[in-house]
Amino acid sequence: MSEFSPGKCEIVKAVISPYGKESTAGEDISPIIGAFDIEHGISKVSLTGSITVLDNQSFMERLPLRGEETLDLEIKCYDLQTVRKIKAVIYRIDDINPAPDTKGVTYTLRWISKPSWNGFTKSIIRAYTNKSVSTIVKEIFQEYIAKLRAYTTSKTDNVKLPENTSIYNIEGEQERKFVLQKTEATTTFTIPKYSASEAMGMCVKRAFSNTQSKSSSFRFFETWDGFYFVSDEWMFERATLNGISNKNILNYSAQVDLDPLNVTEQVRSLESFTNTTRVDSARDLARGAYRTSFVEIDLLNHTAKKYNYSYDAGMFKDSTGKESSWSADVHTKDFVDATYNETNAPQYLIVRDYRDTYDAKAFGGEKNFRDLVASRVMYNNHLQSTSVTAMTSGRLDLSPGDVVFIRIRELNQSTNQVLLNDQLSGRYLITHIVNSCDSDIMATHLQLFKYDWSDAGSDNRQNSEVRSG
């Protein structure tokens, strides 16, 4: 019996087809692929990757490769038998190195998902008048990225989603979907010859919500499952509604059980775990984590006013769905009150060109900039107060936007290490993933954030499971 390897992964299928001939002239190059990378994140609009080809069959010239081919990719990871499929477009060919004996060549094919390529190649010059951002996002996606269809459920759909969520099937993308969180308030703006992907970034900056997402921290991103336009709170709430499953528990320990029969422990183990910044009070001051101010110049009334915003516990919900508290904050309230004030708060300038009672809504401006910017600045600083980079083997099942529970023992040899470390253990939001596979072994590099210093209080800190199933 071969030795168990939780990181074993391979490309099952990689069919490359010339432009316009996807169904008639495809060729599977999976046997000549030596390595591959996949990258996606909640701050990255597209799912992208690369494959390194060891070509001794003149495939590059024979097809030939022109940087316009389609790529049907199927990847399998053997730790949890995860299979991922994607329809992609090859847009770049580089790193071409002929073998010393000139009997072969290595090169790298870089790809992007097909819908994202569509969004990258189409420019938008268009004015949107008195519409919610979520409505605009749906229209842009439908017209410039991919057609949407009414969502059809299947027997495997058992995930609970937060309120005010719409879900659509993507035409031509089997088993992939577009998940859209409803925003509040209306807005008016013009997209000035942006690609569809850039236009989505413009919408992200203007998305506002004061109930379901008090931080208005919206993201547009792509994963294996499809596309998402949702807020950070939406991702945390989804995890709260469904619980943290066993597969989303990760452990970091000095010793890993190498018994091949203990598959669960090996699949969960993190090989590295780094808290990049414990605390940075100067950064908190410079970024406005606790105080921000705005000078609003009203062009119509010829006035200028100053507005001050202060952070307080309970403004946002933590990653367990409960209101944040000072006891979990990186700083004490006394230190915040004494250190962060109106005189040293970062100051923003807003030029206002509208009236609240203005009837011609087509000319209305951005009416929520102050609240939106202040909320995002404070929330993002608290979300990133515990940032972590980690690495594990395999785990092609994990995606950006997932919430995982990381268990790390007390960092003290004199302490009973059955207990978990209060500051570092807890629920983390996966923000970025790079899967790198070489010689059929995959390493998964993770970037994660945890809201506030400790938000694990409502979870079990002992050695038992967070949730069964």
Task: Write a brief structural summary.
With 469 residues, the chain is an alpha+beta fold.
Overview of this structure, please?
- The chain has helices at residues 59-62, 114-121, 133-145, 196-206, 232-242, 263-268, 281-287, 333-339, 369-383, and strands spanning 9-17, 27-28, 33-41, 44-55, 70-77, 82-98, 105-113, 123-131, 148-150, 165-170, 177-181, 187-195, 218-223, 226-231, 249-252, 272-275, 291-298, 303-310, 347-352, 386-393, 403-408, 426-438, 441-450.
- By secondary structure, it is α+β, with helices and mostly antiparallel strands.
- The chain folds into 3 domains: 9-113, Thrombin, subunit H, CATH 2.40.10; 122-242, no CATH class; 281-383, no CATH class.
- Strands 1, 2, 3, 4, 5, 6, 7, 15, 16, 20, 21, 22 and 23 form a 13-stranded mixed sheet that branches.
- Strand 10 (165-170) and strand 11 (177-181) form a beta hairpin.
- The chain is globular.
- The two termini are 29 Å apart.
Structural class: alpha+beta
How widely separated are the two ends? 29 Å
What is the total tally of β strands?
Answer: 23
Low-confidence segments, given as residue ranges, are: 358-365, 460-469
- The pLDDT mean sits at 85
**Share of residues in helices:** 10-25%
Beta-strand percentage range: 35-45%
* Main sheet overview: 13 strands, mixed
Global shape: globular
Rg is 24 Å
- Integer tally of domains: 3
How many distinct helices? 9
